[in-house]
Amino acid sequence: MIESPPRIRPQRWIGEAVPRKEDPALLTGAGRFIDDLDPFPNTYHAAILRSPHAHARILSVDAARALALDGVKAVLTGARVAEISKPFHAGISEPVHFYPIAVGKVRYVGEPVAVVVARDRYIAEDALDLIEVEYERLEPVVEIDRALERDSAPLHENVGSNVVHERSFVYGDVDGAFAAAEDVIKATFRFPKYASTPIETYGVIAHYQRGTDTYAIHANFQGPFVLHTLLAAALRVPGNRVRVLVPPDIGGSYGIKALLYPYMALIALASKESGVPVRWIEDRLEHLCASSSLTDRLTKVQAAVLRDGTVLALRLDHVDNVGAYVRAPEPACLYRMHGTSTGAYRIPAIAIHNRLVTTNKLPTGLNRGYGGQEHYFALERTMALIAKRLQLDRLDVVRRNLVHADEFPYRAPAGSVLDSGDYQAALDEALRLAEYGKLLAARDRARAQGRCAGVGLACVVEPSGSSMGYITIALPLEQRKKSLPKSGAAEAVTVALDPTGAITVRLGTAPQGQGHQTVAAQIVAEELGVSLESIEVIAEVDTQTSPWTIASGTYSSRFAPIAAVAVQSAARKVAMKLRAIAAQECGVPADDVELAEGLAIPRGERAKAIPIKRLAGLAHWNPLALPAGLEPGVYETAYYSVPILEAPDDQDRVNSSAVYGFVADICLLEVDRDTGKIDIQRYVSVHDTGRMLNPLLAEGQIRGGFAHGLGGALMEEIVYDESGALLSGTFADYLCPTAAEIPPLQIGHVDTPSPFTPLGAKGIGEGNSMSVPVTIANAVADALGIDDVTLPLTPRRVWELAQR
Amino acid sequence: MIGEGSIELAGGQESIYQALLDPQLLRRAIPGCRDFEERGDSRYAAVMEAGVGPIKGTFKATVAVTDQQPPQSYALQVEGQGAPGSVFGRISISLAPSTAGQTRLHYVYDVSVSGKIAMVGQRMLDAAAKMVAAQFFKRLHEELAAR
Questions:
Q1: CA-to-CA distance for A531 and A503, rounded, in angstroms?
Q2: What are the structural domains, with CATH classification, of chain A?
Q3: Of the candidates A456, A459, A458, the residue with the CA atom closest to the CA atom of residue A782
Q4: What's the rounded Cα separation, in Å, for the pair A39 and A22?
Q5: Among the partner residues A128, A723, A730, nearest to B120 by beta-carbon distance
Q6: Are A509 and A554 contacting, i.e. CB atoms less than 8 angstroms apart?
Q7: E strand or H helix at A105, and its extent?
Q8: What is the DSSP letter of A485?
Q9: Among A44, A99, A176, B74, whose CB has the most other CB atoms within 10 angstroms?
């Protein structure tokens, strides 16, 4: 970090409710999305033949008739892909080979089997019908329980089992705690498979350039750019021959567009095979069957407790279903919350048994909340069950176990360092906003009138800024030691002034609607003392020319804790240079120069102020006049990583995220016993966002996460029948909440800036994706007086629960 | 998809049993059937147009006749595949004498549908299957009556 310059009259932008810079273009239809781009002449179109079977051997693929169709340039099959590329690497020991197309076997409905490259999409789609594939059907393995059985047909014969990963961890004296316990609460939870549904689907335009053996791949990819490394390895070229270009605008992602990378490889190979640039824009049917989702998970919990509700220890047994392949960055879903497994509670001991299974379902990956919704569903249901079993007030049990405000930074037993917080105060604020006493009275009144009402509560820690090292904890220590340690989570940003003083900020974050351009402009405007309007922020990423790191991208809510600091660092480098030039011109020390109103002003000598554009002009036009030691031009790149993100230690502890926010949710709802409909009457969510960078954007993130969490709680599920056929292939069957289904949300804040980053900001994009499903489940359990609640709480399921 | 049904057919049990294994008659009776030929060993190859809602296309199917107990019962093992998806399952057919000159046919099917046709059309599949079955037996009835 660069030291802050002295500030005489600072113009504050950070923390202001500045409207989004991005919106004028988006709202007037002037956005530039992947399908708006036409980067290469003579671009052909791809269509993908997909498996109708959940599990089958491919006996033959005959593309002769497709190739004979006028306009068809090439047909790429799995056998050919296996010849010209390598399987993608994933972070587990077992050799689960994953190619971007089925090789030898299909393992889920919708898996690519062949790619047709044709003059237009119509011809390409027609040609799909002419490809003849012979399959030999195999036993489908659909559910976790079947995958755990030794005799289930292994998806990956070379692994020999559908349990493809298993590790156990013990932190603290778990056995001692269970021996000392006055009661042990046991429960089993199943969390469903669902996804996120960006308006814009996947898109790739790839061009293999024969002359240089390089690939140029335009894709609405969100990072993490470590996947670029995997992509290059799969394509068998060094990283500098795979130029990935992310368009200026991406129409939503919520994690799912990280998993575009196999299609980037597939279309790049299709371009190589066909000798022409190839465009593929995914349609909605493809997206719903073959993009990505989060995992479905089976969790068994044992909680060792005292009669007063103190939790002494937890035993967690996880089985995470990654679908047909372990597709990088999996098994991250299982490990993202690992260091934070004890949540917001000061539980001193925990044992974790992790297994990963493969089934004939869509492979999994990043999804807003990534692992958090699964984890907190089990943890926060358990806390509710503890209160119920011990006949204690739910609030008392939570309060008794929450980490205290004076314990921060708090090192959780599995390794996360909870940086800052005041969980009790945040919970109190939620209770105040919800008018908790009145809320309970309203519930009891409804019950007295024969209606079915319930109150739900959840407290979750929201990690943001994932470390690059946490996934390596999936490997046993001796195996981990064979590679270099992995730590940190770096981001890179460039701030440049051209000869006229015009300011350009270049990000490596590939945002998908988060408003990074706006916040970056706020930070740079504040640091350089210029207007917001004078700053252009480029969100397009080009791996050949943009600043980026393996951690770059937009995921794990990392902009606020990490990328924003890189913006500030780069701006401060520029500010130092401008002040140094101004100091020489004015004959004062650099420390006495302030930047404000577009000027460099010597302290107390406003008449001597020099416009920043003149200083920039000097740096470009007259380098001989620069102070000794300064380089010509104004082009400063800064890298920032969070120092506290250390590699996993020898005791398998890992601080998996840079900073940790907090969310306290309270909900009152009524259940209609006759129709199964849930009516959410009150929903309050209080957040700890650290230092808030822009309240408008923070609110947008909270509302977006709330909608996603609500979908998971009430509607969304990727459903397969017992044969592995996908039953939720359209928006008529895969329901998502629309504005009409989203109840009012009351938002509050108890913000405690992180002491571990210069800006103190915490990510805020995923907290409600994690908290809402279990808050609603807790409220429904309270309403119906039941212990077993399974999501999504569709009217049919609720009706069935209500009939018991 | 699991379902069953029955229908009264004109004709004696023996002749209906034979007719039900006649490729020419089946080709005419199966809705959307373009081709139905015997491949020997009680196996048939069929080509048919089928679909649900917006998902339509050509299926290539193999049909194996098993568990033959003439003239009482037999089963059909069906495996079909086409651009819209795949269909596989078993249809059991049993015949019994009914009122004079009539035979009662009872069918039970357990069929799985996969691929795009299941993804898009699953809510309509049950109804579509019932409709196809009804059409088939109506045409069969007409074919037999015309003999």
A1: 10
A2: 23-31+490-640 (3.30.365.10), 417-466+659-804 (3.30.365.10)
A3: A456
A4: 23
A5: A730
A6: yes
A7: strand A105-106
A8: -
A9: A44
Tokens (6 digits) for A62: 């005959």
Provide the β-strand partners of residue B86. B81, B114
Q: Which helix (H) or strand (E) holds A331?
A: none
A316 bridge partner residues: A301, A352
Q: Write out the two tokens for A558.
A: 């990392």
Sign of CA pseudo-dihedral A22, A25, A28, A34: negative
d(CA A203, CA A282): 6
Q: Is B116 on the interface with A (CB under 8 A)?
A: yes
Instruction: Tell me the C-alpha distance between A707 and A369, whole Å.
Output: 12
Q: Where would I find the beta strands (DSSP E) of A287-427?
A: 296-305, 311-321, 349-357, 410-411, 417-418
Q: What is the pLDDT of residues B75-113, one digit of tens each?
A: 999 999 888 888 889 999 999 999 888 899 999 999 888
Strand order in the sheet with A491-497: A535-538, A503-507, A491-497, A634-640
Cβ–Cβ < 8 Å for A458, A709: no
Pull the structure tokens for residue A175. Answer: 């056995």
> CA-to-CA distance for A295 and A318, rounded, in angstroms?
11
Number of domains in chain B: 1
**CA A752 to CA A662: how far, in whole Å?**
10
Note whether A288 contacts B85, CB cutoff 8 Å. no
Q: Which residue of B has its CA nearest to A720?
A: B119
CA-nearest residue to A731 within chain B is B120
pLDDT at residue A398, rounded to an integer: 98
Span A33-73, pLDDT tens digits = 999 999 999 999 999 999 999 999 999 999 999 999 999 99
Mean pLDDT value across chain A: 96
Mean per-residue pLDDT, A759-784: 98
The CATH number of the domain holding residue B43 is: 3.30.530.20
- Orientation angle between helical segments A564-586 and A516-528, nearest 10 degrees: 30
Burial classification of residue A709, based on how many CB atoms lie within 10 Å of its CB (0-12 exposed, 13-18 middle, 19 or more buried): buried
Interface residue B81 vs chain A (CB under 8 A): yes
Could you tell me how many residues make up chain A?
Answer: 804
CA distance A200 to A204: 12
Q: Which of A137, A717, A722, A731 to mutate to test the interface with B (most CBs of B within 10 A)?
A: A137
Query: Do B119 and A51 count as a contact with CB atoms less than 8 A apart?
Result: no
Residue A5, pLDDT score: 46
Q: Which two tokens stand for residue A787?
A: 């212990």
Angstrom distances, CA of residue A318 to CA of A188, A189, A341: 10, 10, 11
Distance CA A209, CA A304 (A): 62
Contact in structure between A106 and A140 (CB atoms under 8 Å) = no
What is the residue range of B103's domain?
2-146
With tokens 């909340």, the residue in question is A369
Does A490 reach chain B within 8 Å, measured CB to CB? no
**Ramachandran angles phi, psi of A366, nearest 5°:** -50, 140
Query: Per the CB < 8 Å rule, is B81 touching A285?
Result: no
Q: Parallel, antiparallel, or unpaired: how do β-strands A410-411 and A349-357 relate?
A: unpaired
CB contact under 8 A, A733 and B81: no
Distance CA A424, CA A232 (A): 48
Instruction: Answer yes or no: do A109 and B81 touch at CB < 8 A.
Output: no
The predicted structure's pLDDT at residue A123: 98
| DSSP code string of A542-562 | ETTTS---TT-SS-TT-IIII
Both structure tokens of A408: 């921060």
DSSP three-state, residue A520: helix
Sign of CA dihedral A508, A705, A219, A329: positive
Closest-CA residue of chain B to A730:
B120
- Choice between B4 and A462, residue whose per-residue pLDDT is larger: A462
- Distance CA(A235)–CA(A265), nearest Å, equals 7
